[in-house]
Structure formats: C-alpha cells, structure tokens
Amino acid sequence: MSQRPLPVRVAAASAAALSAGALAWYLPDLGAALTAPRTGAFAVSDMPSASPTPVSVTDPVAVGAGPSRGPVPRIGVRSADLAALPSVDNGLVPTRVVVAGGEVDLPVVPAGVDMAGAMEVPAGSFTAAWYRFGPGAGASEGAAVVAAHVSSRADGRGPFSRLVALQPGARVDLFTDQGAVTYEVVSVEQVAKLSLDTASLFDRAGGHRLHLVTCGGRYDRSTNSYEDNVVVVARPVA
C-alpha cells in the first residue's frame, strides 16, 4: 500500500461510518451518540494535536435608551473541535498491542477523525491507532477499535499483515498505563470494503470486545488500494 488512504464503505446510521486500509469511517452527530466515522478512507496523516482555544464570553453592553430588561444571561460556549471531545468511555487508553506471542507488536496512539470525517491512522505500517471516541481497553461494553496499515512504501509490509492468518484462541494483549488487558480471538474475517459493516465495527453497545482492523485481499494498482478489509474480533479473557 502506498501512502494514500485505502477506501471502505460504511453502513448508514445517522450519517455514520469509517473506512480501513487505509480504513475510513465518518462521524455522525457529535452528541452523546458518536458512533462510526463515515465512508471514505483512513487518512494517512499525523495525529491532530491542537487543543481548542478557550473562548470567553462577556455580558453585552446595552446601546441606546430603553426600559431596563434586567441582567442578560451569559451564553455558554463550547468548542466544536473534535479534539475537545472526551473519549467516550469507560476503559483505558491503549498504548501497545501484542498478538500471538510477539508476531504482532505495535505501539498504539489515540486517533480521532480528520476534517473530512475520516478516522486517522498514522502513516507507515508500524504504528497502530485506537479510535478514541469509542470504548477503551477493558471497557464495560462496546467495541474498542485498533487499526493499522497493512503496508506502506516506506516500511513495506507491517505486523498487521499477519492478522489474516490468526486462529480462534490466539491471545491479544492490549497494554495501557495501568497494565495489560488480555483478549482471545474469536473470529477473523476478510470482507470486501464495499460490504464492511462499520456500524457494527464501531458499535458501543453489547458485551465488550476488541476489533483489530487492516487491509487485505487483492491490491489494485489503478486505485492504489486493497480491495478488502481484515477484521479480527477478540473477547476479554475473564
């Protein structure tokens, strides 16, 4: 895969979705139900680091004469910058993912969405991204999503290229600042990007699970993209 984003389609849910491989997904509304990012591509760019600029609100000054209407209430102001939104959960921030005894071992960085609404994944194939608007490691419910490029021109094939060969029962450790949360692989699926169910991929309901996502299938040179996504589902080990 080159340094271009790889496409993916997303199921609609209030205008939601993401896509992988670059994967990409679009955010629906920014309220309590931040679900999946939209259809498009995983942007290959640096993680946004800007924090919102505080805005101060002062009471307006009356102009001209007229009857007194009493004090004018302040209007609350909140940044609409995605970086200002807290992680949706519950759960811990992943910092590293290790699969099957070290065959896959990558640092993990928090990722939001870019200005086009697509989830961002670091350039190259040796750093993974955790979708920070969804559940974290060991959350009480919902799917934590960790994604990485299968390959890049600079790095060649990365560790996530091995996901497609994983078998049910394989161990996955998601490390955090407070230790590791251990999961067990229950399924590995390779699905055409146009058929990827991103609503399910980024689901915040139901029992907690971990989704590892990358690209797979045939590489189409005309679009500089892989045709499929590989999705690994793992459940926490009690």
* Biggest beta-sheet profile: 8 strands, mixed, barrel
**Shape summary:** globular
Read across the widest sheet, the strand sequence of neighbours is 6-7-9-10-15-16-14-13
Overall tally of structural domains? 1
What share of the residues lie within helices? under 10%
Total beta-strand segments: 16
**CATH topology name:** Sortase, Chain: A
What is the H/E order?
Answer: EEEEEEEEEEEEEEHEE
The helix count comes to 1
Range of strand content: 25-35%
| CATH top-level class | Mainly Beta
Map the helices and strands:
Layout: E1 7-8, E2 18-20, E3 23-25, E4 40-41, E5 43-44, E6 96-99, E7 104-111, E8 120-121, E9 128-131, E10 143-147, E11 151-152, E12 156-157, E13 171-176, E14 179-192, H1 198-201, E15 209-220, E16 225-236
Parallel strand pairs: 5-8, 7-9, 10-15
Antiparallel strand pairs: 1-4, 2-3, 6-7, 6-13, 9-10, 11-12, 13-14, 14-16, 15-16
